Fold:
Amino acid sequence: MRRVLGFAAVSLLALAVSVPTALAAPGSGDAARGGGRIHIDFVRYDPAGPDNGSNAHVNKEIVQITNGTNRRRNLAGWTVRDSDGHRYRFPRTSVGRHKTVTLHTGNGRDHGLQRYWDQGFYVWNNDGDRATLRDRDGRVKDSCNWGDGSGSTGC
Structure:
C-alpha cells in the first residue's frame, strides 16, 4: 500500500510542478520568472463588465509589479507609463522580497501594497498598449505589451 501511495504522491507532485504559471492567480507568479529583478508581473487592461467609467470599475484596471529579488526594495521615484504618455510615479513604497505591489488606475487611498493612480478614467487601451516600468533614474527595467485579447495578460 505504501508503494502505491508513494507513487500517487510523486505523480501529484509532478503534475503540480508542470502546471503553467499562466493559470496562476494575479500576483502569484513565480519570482524566478522575473529573473531576480523587479518586473511587471500582470496587467488587467479590460476588466469584466461594462466600461461605465465608475471609480469601482476603473480600479479593476491594475498593473502588478513583483520584487523578484532577495531583499526589500523601495520603489520611490519609479514610474509606470502607457503608450499615450500617462505616467504614475511611486511614492515611498517598500516591497518585500518576492512580494507584489498592485497599482489601481482609479482613485483611492494607498495602503499596504495597494497603490492608486488617481486617474478619472481608464488608462490602458483594450486593443493594445504597452506598460513600461522605469527606475528612479529613468532606465527601463521592464515592459509588457498586449494586443486585442482577453482583457488581462501575464508578463
Notes: The mean pLDDT is 84. The radius of gyration is 18 Å. The chain has two helices and eleven strands.
